[in-house]
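Hey, I'm writing a tutorial for new members on how sequence and structure tokens pair up, and I'd like a real worked example in the thread rather than a made-up one. If someone can provide the structure for the chain below, I'll link this post from the tutorial.
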Amino acid sequence: MSKGYLTTHVLDTFNGTPGSGIKASLYKIDSDKRTKIIDFKLNQDGRSEVPVLGNENFIKGKYELIFFCGDYFKNFTNLDEPYFLDDVVIRFGINNINEHYHVPLLISPWSYTTYRGS
């Protein structure tokens, strides 16, 4: 069994707060096939309550996190649809099943950035 796991969190740079309540999904990517692993919602600290992926499910491969930020920002803005940023997709790879992978997202209605955190 692997010792690695995946976590994420979102920081809302528009409001200067955690991305509380943002809905997200995780997919495994195999060639042209996407398989949904989990849907989840971020807590008041903008984090998942438990690792998004771990144990025997934590395997090498390509993954995709989708954050549904348009639904989140419509609570704070009066932007017209379609939003400049709506569903933010982060595609990344896991190549060591014994490490912690942390994928944070810093988001505003007009920009975002991500990196491999710790």
